Amino acid sequence: MLKKMNLPNKLTLLRILLVPLFVVFMCLPQEWIWPIYTALAIYIVAALTDFLDGYISRKKGLVTTFGKIMDPLADKLLVSSGFIMLTALGIIPGWMTVIIIFRDFFVNALRMFGADNQKELSASLSGKIKTLFQLVGIPLGILNVAFIPEYGYAAFIESASKMAMFELMINVFMTVTITVAVIATVVSFFVYLKRFKNDINYEE
Taking a C-beta distance cutoff of 8 angstroms, is the pair 159, 151 a contact? Predict the structure, then answer.
């Protein structure tokens, strides 16, 4: 099967396979310290495959049905696993993770329904902003686990004096990127909902 796949699809498959590996290292005892850095490296590699497969497929015209279905799924698996693990470790509030996962899978369902009706709901600007800030925010959250695991989202507001400058910057940037990601997530949800309502006959 791999021999028949083009490069973008192989990168998508690699991203899917990296997700459980990422989760395993995030679940290992953080006192060992090396698992969290390994998880960070795995996540960065997986995120890079997201940009690479899209760039290569667009540049060389290697768009396939497999890619259309599996690439968004791979992205959602990666982002969802990142948010779930950071929530489990007490870094990100659970309600934020619920919003992210609910939106991603709901929009994916809308896209599948649209595809069945010969309508393509391509990514909106707010959706692209959401993805960018999610992919940046999660690594910052992992760094937060590595350096200041006792402090979570927006901890700098009350505990800035207890953090070293580098730790403070990590917490601030993580908080800002995650906040923007959640806001963009909500906005893009309503954008997709409006496009779905206007462009697709959902009564058929």
Answer: yes
Q: What is the pTM of this model?
A: 0.86
Share of the chain above pLDDT 70, in %: 83
Cβ within 8 Å of residue 145, ≥6 positions away: 30, 36, 86, 89, 91
Token pair recorded at residue 119? 């309508």
Closest CA to 75 of 38, 47, 40: 47
Q: How many residues make up the chain in this entry?
A: 204
Mean pLDDT to the nearest integer, 56-69: 71
Q: How many CA atoms lie within 13 A of 144 on its CB side?
A: 30
> What are the phi and psi torsion angles at 64 (to 5°)?
-130, 165
The fold for domain 2-199 equals: Four Helix Bundle (Hemerythrin (Met), subunit A) (1.20.120)
Residue 204 has pLDDT above 60, yes or no: no
Domain definitions of the chain by residue range: 2-199
d(CA 138, CA 130): 12
DSSP state letters, 63-131: --HHHHHHHHHHHHHHHHHHHHHHHHTTSS-HHHHHHHHHHHHHHHHHHHHHHHTT---PPPHHHHHHH
**Mean pLDDT lowest among 51-60, 116-125, 178-187:** 116-125
